[in-house]
Amino acid sequence: MKRPSVLSHRNISLLVGLLLCILLIIVLGCLFAPHLFYDQWIWKYYWGPVVADAAGHSVEFNGVVAYEGYTLVSEVTYGVLLIGALYGLYQLLKKLRIDIDWSFCVALLPYILFGPVTRVLEDTAYFTEPVVYWFISPLIYVQTTLYVLGFLLLGWYLRQSHDSHQKTFVVLLSVFVGIDCVYTLLWVLGLPCGIEPLYFGLLSVVAFSPLLYHQVTRKAVSINTVVFSGGLLVVLPGVFLIGQWIAGWQWSYSSGSFPSVLLLIICLVALIVGLVFLVAWRYRTHEAFAVYTRPLNLAMLSGHLIDGLTSYISIYDPLMMGLPSYIEKHPASNTLMELWPPLFPIVKFLLIMLVIYVFDVLYKKELMRYARLVNLLKIGIFILGVSPGLRDLLRVTMGV
Fold first, then answer.
1. Helix, strand, coil proportions of the chain in percent (round to 5)?
2. Domain boundaries in the chain?
């Protein structure tokens, strides 16, 4: 065995051993010192805030009060876990020889939308306990990760098996039909699933259509296509429910629907990103401009513009659209808007333009060896913008 391989296996063993030791300490602590380990630590900083978010107010357990939102301890913990998860995902994709590019980002798009879509549904009190906990961070991210990994590994298995188009199609069809059957069974048993099985079945047909297209055209089904179709199956029920709400079927309190805000934000983002693309295309012979024509870079810009513009318009209502009163919870963005309301989206725009320049122009040669990692970071930056931005946009649109 080669030395690098030995070192790699040793590092993995040490990491697994360390994680098991930490888990053992936590379990023993909860058993023999529950007030210190569970009440004062796990409940106060991790699980309590999830329960408080579901309840909509602070909650108490054994004399320890937990509040909605993140704490400094939980933010640091989740930040470390996020870095570890990104690194693990990077290594997994590298091992499976899956390219991290614009096509992969498109395949992930339904899962990226799943977070804000379901969080908005949670804001409308659509989910009940205990299901509601699965749609509050950080559990919503755990749920999304499991969906991504499931369909990613399914696509990789089908690619490795080298089966015929017909057999691959049968396997994928069986998976989708099986999911429909399980969903219907859960509905019949009276478990809280969501939409009726008939609607779920129709939406699963829509989700399966990209795979059906590959079968009809006799094209090989790629991993990205499997991941994308699986994501559609995950997110479309939530989109269907939001459509019902906007159409008038509302199951809880609403200040009114404002689809005009959704249209306004989409048009503004399209206009700004379109202008950036046109200028960059005009001067595309210069590398410093050409990088702003790349889809993944424009996606980052779009995601953060949605976030910035939605915050500005929903809080200050500059066009007097009669929007409900909203406040900004993040100190940094709130400070910028207090100085001058449009400053927040402007700073976001300039910051993403700078990030693109640093990645693709200033340190292009140095980062060329790490193209897969750079693209993964770009997808992460896109998610950090579009996820909170879309949630806020949908909340304003639905009046919740």
1. 80, 0, 20
2. 30-55+71-95, 101-252, 259-398
Residue 377 has pLDDT above 70, yes or no: yes
Considering only CA atoms, which of 381, 350, 375, 348 is closest in space to residue 360? 375
Three-class DSSP category at 267: helix
pLDDT bucket at 276, cuts 50 / 70 / 90 = very high
Q: Give the SS3 label for residue 33.
A: coil
Decide if pLDDT at 292 tops 60.
yes
C-alpha span between 149 and 154 (Å, rounded): 8
- CA-to-CA dists, residue 294 to 290, 368, 378, angstroms: 8, 16, 12
Give tens-digit pLDDT for 243-261.
Answer: 999 988 888 888 888 999 9
Instruction: In whole angstroms, give the CA distance from residue 207 to residue 229.
Output: 5
Dihedral (Cα; 298, 299, 303, 306), 10-degree rounding: 60
pLDDT of residue 395: 93
Tell me the one-letter amino acid at 22.
I
Q: Would you state the pLDDT for residue 192?
A: 66
Other CB atoms closer than 10 Å to residue 39's CB: what's the count?
18
What's the pTM value of the predicted model, to 2 decimals?
0.89
For the record, the structure tokens of 376 come out as: 């993964």
Residue 298: CB atoms within 10 A of its CB come to 20
Cβ within 8 Å of residue 312, ≥6 positions away? 318, 337, 341, 342, 344, 345
| Non-local CB neighbours of 237 within 8 Å, separated by 6+ positions | 194, 195, 199, 200, 203
The C-alpha torsion from 64 through 69 and 71 to 73, rounded to 10°, is: 90
Distance CA 310, CA 316 (A): 10
The number of angstroms, rounded, from the C-alpha of 147 to the middle of its chain's C-alpha atoms is 11
